[in-house]
Amino acid sequence: MDYRCAAPLNPGDTIAVVAPSAALAEDDAAQGIAFLKELGYQVAVGKSVSAHDGYLAGSDELRAADINAAFADDQVKAIICLRGGYGATRILPLLDYDLIAAHPKIFVGFSDITALHTVFLQRCHFRPIHGTMVMSLARKASAYTRDELRWGLAHPYDPRVLPSAPEMHPETLVPGSATGPLLGGNLMLLSVTMGTPYALQSEGGILCLEEVGEDAYSLDRMLCHIEQAGLIDGVKGIAFGEFYRCNPTEGSTYEWTVNEVIQAYAKKWGKPAIKGLSFGHGADNAWLPLGQKVRLDAKPDRAELVFLP
After folding, report:
1. Which residues does residue 176 pair with via DSSP β-bridges, in sequence order?
2. 48: helix, strand or coil
3. Which single residue of 5, 99, 241, 258 could bond 210 by disulfide (Cβ 3.0 to 4.6 Å)?
4. Which candidate, 27, 213, 56, 242, places its Cα nearest to that of 138?
5. Residue 31 phi/psi, 5° resolution?
6. Which of 202, 242, 281, 304 is catalytic?
7. How does DSSP assign 91-141, residue by residue?
8. Residue 62: in which H helix or E strand, if any?
């Protein structure tokens, strides 16, 4: 599949902020929006950003309508999600995929937004971005993350070696090299959509995976699920990001650590695999254009992800 590219942003362009999933927990939207304005962009805020319906950012219909409207608006050149949480899968049947496909735009988010990334790739055939969100900019985004967003909005699909944050040190799990479109995102979202019409089709891809706040046995359950559901069969390589606040990290009797679980599945799958890339729920979150062709190099002395033209 040849996924289309959205246009890069220019100073003064408009970014829409929408909330496909959880409601605003605190008054963090203003700080994140202020950062986007500091970068020289105009910001249009969707109705969902200030809406509440239990733990959701307004009704399913409102959240879907915000996304449809942002894609339909010719003044909007990019869309950045407010936050993840839960709710994106609920709106998948309500999105206007023909409209969205006709107006490809830079679409940025991670976590629960993985469900939207998958359908935009497979039904609308353009490249969404696994990257930081508005609430993350207000809370814990590192200088690395802010620099990645600044660079990515202006150069969304440029070839490069994915840079590592200072605290992250990529390592090879299974040696080898593989090339294909970058796919995936949040492990739980990939797992829960298996068996639905919105499941990721991973044939020929390089699968990126990250997660937050899960115990090792829970990660084991999800990795086992995506394996048994066939997601790994056609994958050419695996790129593991950060497993933020996933425990345990230290070994003990009757326990496996998170790293031991990841290493065991990588070895079992036998595909070229690296870990420790700078994307996920922590402070460091890279700009990853999903659907772009990448080369995964898993060498004894080098572990890197290279975005190709």
Report:
1. 298
2. helix
3. 241
4. 27
5. -70, -40
6. 281
7. HGGGS-HHHHHHS--EEEE-GGGHHHHHHIIIII-B--EE---HHHHHHT-
8. helix 60-72
| Structure token digits, residue 87 | 């709710």
**Residue 212 C-alpha from the chain's centroid:** 13
Measured between alpha carbons, how far is residue 83 from residues 65, 71, 108, 298 in Å?
17, 18, 10, 32
- CA distance linking residue 99 with residue 279, whole number of Å: 30
Give yes or no: 111 in active site: yes
Handedness of CA 246, 259, 279, 113 (dihedral sign): negative
For 125, the token pair is 């055939």
Tokens 């992250």 map to which residue?
Answer: 168
pTM exceeding the 0.85 threshold for the entire prediction = yes
Coil, strand, or helix at residue 54? Answer: coil
The catalytic position among 21, 48, 111, 278 is 111
Q: How many CB atoms lie within 10 A of CB 155?
A: 13
CA distance 224 to 137: 33
Question: Both tokens of residue 267?
Answer: 């070895």
Average pLDDT (126-146) is 96
| Residue 128: closest CA among 152, 147, 151 | 152
Q: Which helix (H) or strand (E) holds 26?
A: none
Which of 21, 130, 191, 210 is catalytic? The answer is 210
Tell me the per-residue pLDDT of 196-238, one tens digit each, with 9 for 90 and over. Answer: 999 999 999 999 999 999 999 999 999 999 999 999 999 999 9
Count of CB atoms situated within 10 Å of the CB of 153: 25
Active site (annotated) includes residue 169: no
Catalytic residue at 281? Answer: yes
Q: At 166, phi and psi to the nearest 5?
A: -55, -35
Q: What backbone phi and psi angles, to 5 degrees, belong to 175?
A: -70, 155
